[in-house]
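Thread amino acids onto this structure.
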């Protein structure tokens, strides 16, 4: 260990001295030292492999043709936001009249689920929304017309059954679109004030989207037009970071680890492609900044 520490210090000092005499070198990463030889009464010999930033001429970056996307704020988009706000403040109210369940109703029920070779599962006071549009298999149709204190058996897949014992019906009550509603949505004195706030927020969001779209167009054109080789070590390091970040992102979204592992090759290839673009754009933007004498 003492020998290794001495070698490390000698190599580090000699490398620093050698590189200080070559200030024109624009190094990236740390030198890779190999073939180290240190014998008694002999000079220290080793090979240091270094990577430098690519040298390339300034390409075209002025006069790029960029299209600004059209993101106008319409009354339709404002109304859509208002409707989402109303839905968040909706409440379920019991149906007092003795009537059968209809599409759109909510059935309050105790349910018993039976599956072959599995324990029976029971749940109390489950709320079942009779949203037929989101029921492509048509299971919920079996609850149309059900009344309180009535039971029905629904047939599920693979021989399973669901016994539903209705206890009552509920309907969604959505608040009226008026000044009173606006006051519950925030510091707004009137519905018109709420609409104006939505318009301003939508306009700000549209402007941010437009800027990102224009920036993406510019970077794409630069990346396509400026051609040069980039240091492989930087690409490899960035690709590794990209791969780890993407894997974590997928698992946070609930994708099973086994599925992420099954996509390893595709994820690795994508990470490599993205890394190459990222490193190229880094050097392109650095070159432009130097050309324009920009500083952070």
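Threaded sequence (296 positions):
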């Amino acid at each position: 260990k003492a020998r290794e520490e001495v070698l490390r210090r000698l190599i580090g000092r000699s490398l620093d001295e050698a590189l200080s005499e070559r200030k024109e070198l624009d190094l990236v990463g740390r030198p890779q030292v190999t073939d180290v030889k240190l014998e008694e009464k002999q000079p220290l010999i080793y090979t240091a492999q270094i990577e430098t930033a690519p040298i390339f001429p300034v390409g075209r970056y002025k006069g790029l043709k960029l299209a600004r996307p059209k993101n106008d704020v319409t009354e339709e988009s404002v109304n859509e936001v208002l409707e989402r706000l109303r839905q968040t403040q909706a409440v379920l109210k019991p149906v007092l009249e003795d009537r059968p369940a209809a599409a759109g109703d909510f059935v309050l029920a105790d349910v018993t689920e039976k599956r072959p070779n599995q324990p029976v599962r029971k749940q109390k006071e489950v709320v079942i929304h009779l949203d037929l549009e989101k029921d492509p298999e048509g299971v919920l149709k079996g609850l149309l017309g059900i009344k309180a204190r009535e039971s029905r058996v629904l047939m599920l897949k693979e021989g399973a059954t669901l016994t539903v014992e209705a206890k009552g019906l509920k309907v969604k009550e959505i608040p009226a679109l008026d000044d009173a509603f606006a006051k519950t949505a925030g510091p707004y004195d009137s519905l018109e004030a709420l609409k104006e706030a939505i318009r301003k927020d939508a306009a700000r969001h549209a402007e941010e989207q437009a800027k990102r779209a224009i920036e993406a167009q510019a970077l794409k054109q630069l990346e396509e037009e400026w051609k040069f080789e980039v240091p492989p070590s930087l690409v490899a390091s960035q690709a590794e970071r990209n791969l780890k970040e993407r894997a974590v992102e997928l698992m946070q979204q609930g994708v099973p680890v086994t599925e992420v592992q099954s996509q390893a090759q595709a994820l690795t290839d994508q990470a490599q492609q993205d890394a190459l673009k990222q490193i190229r754009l880094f050097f392109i933007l650095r070159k432009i900044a130097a050309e324009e004498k920009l500083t952070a």
